[in-house]
Structure formats: C-alpha cells, structure tokens
Design brief:
The protein has 466 residues and is α/β, with parallel strands linked by helices. The chain contains 17 helices and 10 strands. It is 55% helix and 11% strand. The strands form 3 sheets. It has a 5-stranded parallel sheet, with helices on both faces. The chain has a 3-stranded antiparallel sheet with strand order 4-5-6.
Length: 466
C-alpha cells in the first residue's frame, strides 16, 4: 500500500506536491511491475481545522460559496483561505468559532457538511487536471473517510490503558520523545473541545489498512518534516498491537525543491510556485528548444508533432530531474539543466531510444521478426559491455523495491544510454556483415526495449522521433 502525501482541499497544488506525486507514482509502478498488489492512496487533506477556518470566514465574506457550486473560482477560494488563516492566527474569537465549526463538521451538521462537499468537489477537479497531465493514477481517500472510526480509536486506546488526560485533552505519552523541560511528550488523540486531529486520523488509517485491507507493507510518501509525526503515531499503534510483526511501515521522506539561489523555490513576488505553472513552463521551454533545433536543421514538422514532443520532453524532464536525485536530499530546480540533451537528463535518455528507432527506419528493420531465430555474437568489447549492463535490470529493480530509492533506476538507465552511445559510435550496425549485423541490431532492440520499460516505470513516455 502506497500512501501519497497530497494537497489540502481549498488550496492549489504547488511545487511542494511535486515530489510526493512523482516519487509515489514511480514506486507504485515498480512494485506493480514486480507483481505486488498495490493500493495507491491519495491521502487528501479534506478535513479538520482548515475547513473550520474557511467555512467560518466564508459565512461572513461570501456565504453563497457555501450553498452554490463553483460560486467562487479556485483562485478566489485560495485567496479567501489565506485571509481566513491570517484571521485565525490573529483573532481569538474567530479562532474559537473556527474550532467549533470543525466540531460541527465532524459531528455531521448538515449545513457544514454541504458546504464542505461543495468545496471538496471543486478542488478535486482542479487536482485531477494535474494528475492527468502527469499520467498519475490515484485512489482518493481523504481524511474524512476515517471520521466515523475516530471515536473507536480513542475508546480502544482507553481500554488498553494507554490514554491519559492532559489539560482536558486525551493523550498517549510517548517513549523516547520529550519536551524542552525533558518531560515525556504527549500525542494528542482527542482535543479538549472533543475534536480530533491528524494523529487520530492516521491511527484510524493504520487500523483500517491492516485489519480491513490486509496490508503487509505501508509506504508513506511525505516530506522529511513529517518524520517525527509518523514515528510517534507508529509507536502508539505498535503499543496498541495494531501493527503486527509481519507488517512493515516505512516513511519514504524527501527533501525540498530549491531555486537556483539555493532557497525554497518561489515566484519573483515571493509566492510558492503553482505546480500547473511550473509544468506549463517546462512544456513551453521544450517547445522553444525544439523549434530552434528544427530551424537550425532546416526540418519541417507538423504542429501536432511539435506539441507532442514538447509535452513529452517537458514533463519527462521535470519528472526525471526529481527522480534522478537521492530523494533524501534537497535539489536545485533548473530548466536549463533538466532540458539539456547531454548529461543525466530525460532528453538524453529519450534521444538514445530515438536513435534506435532511427536505425530501424534507415535499415527498414522489423525488430519483431528479427527476434525469432537470431543470436547475439560477442565480437567486440563494446558489445559485451552493453550486453552485461542490459542483464542488470532485474537486480536494480529489486534494489529499488527494497530501498525505495528511484534514483537507482535512473542511474542504471543513464549508464545504459551512455554505454549504448559508445557502442553505436564504435561498432558499425547496419554496415556490418552478417551474422554480426543481426547480432548488433538485436542489441539495439534490447537497449530500446529496456529503456522504454525503465522509463515507463519512472512514469515517462518515449518518442519515436525528436
């Protein structure tokens, strides 16, 4: 089971959501390819304090948005959310009203639930546009899914003798976690006002995933800032015997996306970069690069060809730039580097695949027919180097499945592209005499098929021509 960190409803997807989406999709693809039954869960932030704030604010500022679908655009909704957050931080009376709104929502108040549903539906449509663009499939299961299970979590912890009251809240005091005074740190599972929080929801999710869905490996994909939270929640779940010994829970954490100044990636005005804007910019830059190259090569291509290549190259460049980094590290986002035709980039790998297709077109080769009876001859060192590397794919995929580090697969594919290019430059293919000609064509075919498979596991499509 792969749990993707995802955006909160009533907010736009921004660059911070890029890594969880891409890394999660890649790991799910690899595990599915290996034959595992993978449930891809989009753990959507569709519940809790943020809705209390937003609904309370909209009751005053724009009540129509709580009764009429799409009364506000998502951009306007985001602006209202920011204003609500500012008010929540500064106004104690507003903060208390917001908290009561959360309790009403969790208790099933009809007007609150209806308003919540309208806001959720609007946000989901916007998120799906991004997921479609990135070719990412997810099963949405927001925090609200677990709402009916939350009282049972508290009751069970109380029966087990793990709960203690602290300032009116129901808590489990943690082992190995202390506050500034050195006292044991409490994990709150029910607030003093009777409401629940993220920890309660995550505990309910663990129980449901293990007891109802028979999960044997739970993979949580979120930024590294959530590490302590998961350690605390898992400790409570283990003390309650909700995580059996034969179930593995693992946090796939990742670092930040940085600008070329080494700071968190922001717009010129200091705002967080919208993910849709970033992806559109990547496609646009890929289109400009392609049109420039076509002009230099005096090539004429259809607008459909240009648009398709720009989209594939742009999105592939963004995905590969992220996945090729060790996920535990921050990485610098640079359009120039990720779109380069040389180096460890998606365009370099795509070009290696395209090169094989070019060989097939020039020689009028049908690889499917070629595979039937032919054998590979190891005549040159470059043939052998390439062949040995092709055999390592299964080993690499096993390593990624254990370590959950997609960059291992990227390294393998980059090295494969390098080895193939050296082979191509030093070993004649179409001009070789038989049976060497067929042998080398087979190596080209195996390289292309391996690249196509490996790239597909990264969530990247190939091109027949660039």
């Amino acid at each position: 089971m792969v749990d993707f960190s995802s955006p909160n409803v009533a907010k736009e997807m921004h660059v911070g959501h890029l890594r969880s989406t891409i890394i999660g999709d890649c790991l799910a693809r690899i595990l599915e390819f290996q034959g595992h039954n993978v449930l891809r869960l989009n753990h959507l932030g569709d519940w809790g304090t943020q809705f209390g704030m937003l609904i309370t604010y909209l009751r005053e500022a724009f009540p129509e948005a709580l009764t009429t679908a799409d009364a506000l655009g998502l951009g306007d909704l985001v602006d209202f959310y920011r204003q609500a957050k500012k008010r929540f931080d500064e106004d104690e009376d507003f903060k208390e009203k917001s908290r009561q709104e959360v309790v009403s929502l969790q208790a099933g108040a009809e007007d609150s639930r209806y308003a919540w549903q309208l806001l959720c539906n609007q946000s989901r449509r916007e998120f799906q546009v991004i997921y479609n663009l990135l070719d990412v499939e997810l099963n949405e299961r927001g925090e609200s899914f677990y709402n009916s299970m939350l009282p049972g979590v508290v009751e069970e912890l109380e029966k087990l003798g793990l709960l203690e009251e602290n300032n009116g809240a129901q808590c489990v005091f943690l082992e190995g976690f202390t506050n500034k005074e050195g006292e044991p740190l409490p994990l709150i599972v029910q607030k003093s006002d009777g409401g629940y929080n993220y920890a309660t929801t995550d505990l309910a999710a663990i129980r449901h995933r293990i007891e109802k869905e028979d999960a044997k490996r739970l993979i949580y994909i979120t930024d590294s800032g959530q590490t302590n939270h998961f350690s605390q929640v898992w400790q409570v779940a283990k003390r309650a015997n909700w995580i059996p010994d034969d179930v593995e829970v693992v946090h796939v954490s990742f670092g930040l996306v940085l600008g070329e100044d080494g700071k968190k990636l922001k717009t010129r005005s200091g705002e967080t970069v919208r993910l849709r804007d970033l992806l559109d910019e990547a496609i646009n830059r890929a289109r400009i690069d392609l049109e420039k190259r076509l002009k230099e090569e005096n090539r004429s291509e259809s607008q459909e060809f240009i648009e398709n290549v720009a989209k594939v190259v742009g999105l592939s460049a963004v995905k590969y730039a992220d996945l090729s980094q060790n996920r535990n590290s921050n990485y610098v986002f640079s359009f120039d580097k990720m779109l380069a035709l040389q180096g460890n980039t998606a365009p370099y790998l795509l070009y290696a695949y395209v090169r094989v297709q070019g060989i097939a077109r020039r020689g009028e080769i049908e690889f499917e027919k070629l595979r039937e009876d032919a054998k590979i001859i190891w005549q040159d060192e470059q043939d052998l180097v390439l062949g040995k590397h092709l055999l390592k794919l299964n080993e690499v995929l096993e390593l990624v499945a254990v370590e959950l580090l997609p960059n291992r697969l990227c390294e393998y594919l980059y090295e494969l592209s390098e080895k193939f290019n050296k082979f191509f430059e030093n070993c004649p293919v179409l001009k070789s005499a038989e049976p060497l000609r067929t042998s080398r064509l087979l190596l080209c075919d195996l390289t292309a098929r391996t690249l196509k498979l490996g790239l597909s596991l990264l969530g990247i499509s190939v091109l027949e021509r660039m």
